[in-house]
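Students often ask why we bother predicting the structure of a whole assembly rather than each chain alone. The short answer is interfaces. A chain on its own may look different once its partners are present, and contacts between molecules only exist in the joint model. In this exercise we take two input lines together and write out one structure for the complete complex. Read the inputs first and try to guess which parts will touch.
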Amino acid sequence: MPADFSMTAILLVFYLTFAGQIYLLSIHYPNQLAKRVSYVLKNYPPTEYPKLYPSGFTTLAAGARAGRLTIFRRYNQLVALLGGAILVAMLASGYRPAAEGGDEIFVMLYFFLQTVPFIVIAFSEFRNYKLMHEAFQNTRRSAELRPRRLFDFVSPAYVVAAVVFFVAWAAFYVSSAGDIATWTVEKYVTLILISGMNLAYIAVIWKAVSGAKLDPYQAYSDQVKTIESTTKTMVFSSIMISLFLILTQGADEYGLEVFDPPLVSFYMQLCVVMGIGLTMRLTKIEDVDFSVYRADAEAPSPDNAPAT
Amino acid sequence: MQITIDIDSEVPLFSQLIFGIKGAVEQGAVAPGDPLPSIRQLANDLNLNNKTVAKAYQLLERDSIIQTKGYRGTFVHPEAAKNVGIDLNEWVMSKLEDVVARCRDRGATDSEIRIAFTSAMQNSIHKGG
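Now the answer. The structure tokens for the assembled complex follow.
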């Protein structure tokens, strides 16, 4: 343990960060998500908005009737309680993080437990979009006659920052890894994996900006918001992963591995804030154009009526 | 500014795209120099094949309604407003009708005209025209 940091300070940072993780991922965002689903089900029921429910019901829409939304809430409450219990147990047992690091694996495992319902929802959403495409029967189709470009959705400064941080990480990684002749397979894998991840971010952005929209009924104004949240999420994720890697690598270099658990917890919280949080902030449910899902709705929707 | 197509219409999809873009130019909804969506974007937004949009863009470029500037993208042609009224198909048809009428006046049969037309087309290809 580094002499400059007292164990109390280290534990305080860890407990605060872990408590934040419990609140954010198992209380705050699940509540926000459940509220959004309840709002949609209450105001846009399947009887009046059948196009929103292509299979008769989405997982969550059905959940409201079959109690799955309750299961979603209960699961998150249970995970939050488990997190609280872990915190209490740590306090009671006088837990001290390992000076050589490694305890972050428990933070990651708990994070995985927290994200299970979100992953289920994401898969359900994709299935729903697929069914929407299969059911899509509008013969009139509209498109905006102006190009969409990356910088319409995200500031060039953020994109430059993402590139700079990636290059900085790669340079730091290569320089601290020593002579390339002595590199282990692990070093190459890390380098290829992180570069591949950034390439995947680029592919997702490219598909979001000029690719087909997931929801065939979606109004153009909502499509723009979706693209904005996707591009920003990808760019911020790239910045965060580079920063995170620089920090953890720095911690390893300077013998600060004891901070790895709070650092990992903080990083994962940031990912969720920049992913789910940003999407929720940019696409406010009250502003979404649901008229496109009405039984009698024809493409184009009121906000994208053709001018030609 | 939006463009709308009807996939059930008897009018070919690429023609609907051409009419849509020409209509936008005529109405002043898009001005000379304005950028247009890429082929991929427009095809995805309208759920069409890329080739359909590419064909429409190719014909619009031939008619000087749009112009492609390499990687920078596709733009409305500076002379688009002037060229939008020109219908090349109509012009070709009127020219051919005129030639056919003159050939008939001179006593050529329809069969002879057809053979001559085919030969003229082939000669033009061989000459690289």
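Check your guess against this: The CA atoms of residues 63 and 87 of chain B lie 8 Å apart.
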